[in-house]
Amino acid sequence: MARSTPRFTSTDFSEAALELWTPDHISCGRGFRCERSEFGSHFAKRVPRDVQCCMCQCWIMKENDHLVGFVTLLADRLKVYGKADENNQREAQKILKPEEIKYRRFPAVKIGLLAIDERVKGMGAGTRLIEWAIDYVATQITPQIGVRYLTVDALYDVDTGYDISEFYSRLGFEYAIEDETLPPPNGFRTLFLDLKSYLDRVRFQ
User: Fold this and answer.
1) In which band, very low, low, confident or very high, does the pLDDT at 2 lie, cut at 50, 70 and 90?
2) Which domain holds residue 181?
3) Structural domain count, the chain
4) To 10 degrees, the CA torsion angle through 41, 193, 140, 34?
5) CB 117 within 8 A of CB 40
6) Is residue 65 included in any domain, yes or no?
7) How far is CA 117 from the centre of its chain?
8) Is residue 134 included in any domain, yes or no?
9) How many CB atoms lie within 10 A of CB 176?
10) What is the pTM assigned to this prediction?
11) Where are the beta strands (DSSP E) in 81-204?
12) Which of 50, 67, 75, 81 could be disulfide-bonded to 55 (CB atoms 3.0-4.6 Å)?
């Protein structure tokens, strides 16, 4: 009996190419297995709906016409929280201290959905999706419109102990509320990445 061809043959996805999602990509998501099973349904139903409604854009990574992973991006804003105006200004100064900007809301792009097939875990696919998103937003979007931050609401599932925020933290994202009481009441931890700092590092390398 002939052996079936492995779904994925690569062992390193750290430099894999991404493609802008189109309806033609729906079929490549069949058989997609993610640690969070709901993301397979999201790719099949939520992504097509949200792209069609101009709620986000989606980029995918695939191999042999099989979905490796995907990321969605959408408009957002980073809000400064505080009990009083003085607190708001103090927090804003902490975020944008060099520029002395005291806004309460800052333009941002949000990572909406990010998922990889569990069979490629540890092969650089998740990191590649994030690093691609950082580079894309910083080099393609910020030169066109004001976008200072990349944000994400990282899932924190107290029932299963699932906390993806640590993954983003390792990649340079900061917690919006450093002393947040855990578990968070809404099931997510918001993190942000300063794109200007990223651009400055790239510019002066």
Assistant:
1) very low
2) 73-203
3) 1
4) -20
5) no
6) no
7) 16
8) yes
9) 20
10) 0.86
11) 105-116, 149-157, 162-163, 174-175, 188-194
12) 50
